[in-house]
């Protein structure tokens, strides 16, 4: 399984890519594989300021449903509208085209609390 | 996933599944493949071509003796006297309090020999149920642990499998079976049954032949596009047909009349709780199992509330998924009977939002 080294990870299987004071967030290869065929991604928090660990959306797969959690505090500045039409992109390309939200970070130091690729890989046994 | 490896069972084909890259999950105490390539791909392959499911976790009982038919007749809801040799019947085991112990298939091998096929999660419960009521000395064998079962399902099944046997698969009518030589193995039972609505066969044999028969089926099906399919696709396929899944749509508390299983509940005979069920059928039931399609975005899941237009709870979802064939969210659930007619509008409570749905006739798809 693929866990790029330039990303940070959470125990809830989100990844974070830091771009200046913004963070791009999605779910990991492990998460999409566990969920299976993704049917839709529901994100209705655009514009909202959310705390770390708050629910920012939901992923529905054929078999199951899962909440999406904020890896860090911030304001949801954008969500990936392409996923409304093609949610299966998350299965196909979880780290690039399958990104979910952009967040203006409230406290960039929270990035330091996230897991490295190696730590995350060890956690999921990949 | 809490269960440790040492206490959990595997089917004889466990290594085949792992080699094929299946995602294995514990189901009814047995590690089973939930998917290989993905539920949608496997689902479509079964509907349009050919798929093979390992369903060896299911239970098989053999009942023998002059009183075997009588015991089954007394404890199941369908009419066993209608069976002739080589025929299969879908039935259920009612309990004394209006619910269902299990749903099952009854195979008549000969006048005094029957095979009962029961759900994996209920093997022990069913066995005890029959054992404690077997007062007339019927010979009972639980052959579940030594029996493998493959469901080869899809429109190309007969064409693909015919080369493996002299049994007439193409001429085998729905809900009949034969016993004979299959892929060189003697004493294999092949029945024209399955729980997908895609046509095909269920094949019963001893565990020792499992690898050989699996490989033979995969080879015979190769040019027909056979793919292994997991429990995930099995669930979406059966739900598109509106077939009940024990533990979801029927259980110890739901009546066969409420569940729409009146067609396998025959009052031409007496059986467990038949008086009360007959009364239900005559007087009507308060709730009914109904199929519905979502009209607003959202996927219904087991135990979500079903609401009326005023937000009053009128029922509960028992099964739900995104239908790969219809590309729509579908579900089944119990609703107050006045809401059960096709065309009625109901609402499914999904993450505290009432999402509109319409009651529809099942099956959801027409073959």
Topology record:
The complex is a heterodimer of chains A (126) and B (367).
Chain A (H helix, E strand, L loop, with lengths): L7 E2 L4 E6 L2 E6 L1 H7 L2 E5 L6 E2 L4 E7 L3 E5 L4 E6 L2 H4 L3 H4 L8 E5 L11 H8 L2
Antiparallel strand pairs in A: 1-2, 2-3, 3-9, 4-6, 5-8, 6-7, 8-9
Chain B lengths: L8 E2 L3 H6 L3 E5 L2 E6 L3 H10 L2 E4 L4 E6 L3 H8 L11 E8 L5 E11 L2 E6 L4 H11 L5 E4 L4 E7 L3 H5 L15 E6 L2 E7 L8 E7 L3 H12 L5 E2 L2 H10 L33 H10 L3 E8 L10 E3 L5 E11 L4 E9 L8 E6 L2 E8 L7
Parallel strand pairs in B: 1-3, 4-14
Antiparallel strand pairs in B: 2-3, 4-10, 5-8, 5-9, 6-7, 7-8, 10-13, 11-12, 12-13, 15-18, 15-20, 16-17, 16-19, 17-18, 19-20
Helix pairs in contact in B: 2-7
Structural account:
The complex is a heterodimer of chains A (126) and B (367). With 126 residues, chain A is α+β, with helices and mostly antiparallel strands. Chain A has a single domain (8-107), classed as OB fold (Dihydrolipoamide Acetyltransferase, E2P), CATH 2.40.50.100. Chain A is built from 4 helices and 9 strands. In chain A, the strands form 2 sheets. A 6-stranded antiparallel beta sheet of chain A has the order 1-2-3-9-8-5. In chain A, strands 4-6-7 form a 3-stranded antiparallel beta sheet. The longest helix of chain A has 8 residues, at 117-124. Chain A is globular. In chain B, 20% of the residues lie in helices and 34% in strands. In chain B, strand 6 and strand 7 (100-110) form a beta hairpin. Chain B has helices spanning 14-19, 39-48, 68-75, 123-133, 157-161, 210-221, 231-240, 274-283, and strands at residues 9-10, 23-27, 30-35, 51-54, 59-64, 87-94, 100-110, 113-118, 139-142, 147-153, 177-182, 185-191, 200-206, 227-228, 287-294, 305-307, 313-323, 328-336, 345-350, 353-360. Chain B starts with 8 loop residues before the first strand and ends in a 7-residue tail after the last strand. In chain B, helix 2 crosses helix 7. Among the domains of chain B are: 9-56 and 145-240, Gyrase A, domain 2 (2-Layer Sandwich); 286-360, Elongation Factor Tu (Ef-tu), domain 3 (Beta Barrel). In chain B, the strands form 4 sheets. Chain B has a 6-stranded mixed beta sheet with strand order 11-12-13-10-4-14, sandwiched between helices. Chain B is α+β, with helices and mostly antiparallel strands and 367 residues long. The chains are: A alpha+beta (126), B alpha+beta (367). Chains A and B meet through strand 4 of A and helix 7 of B.
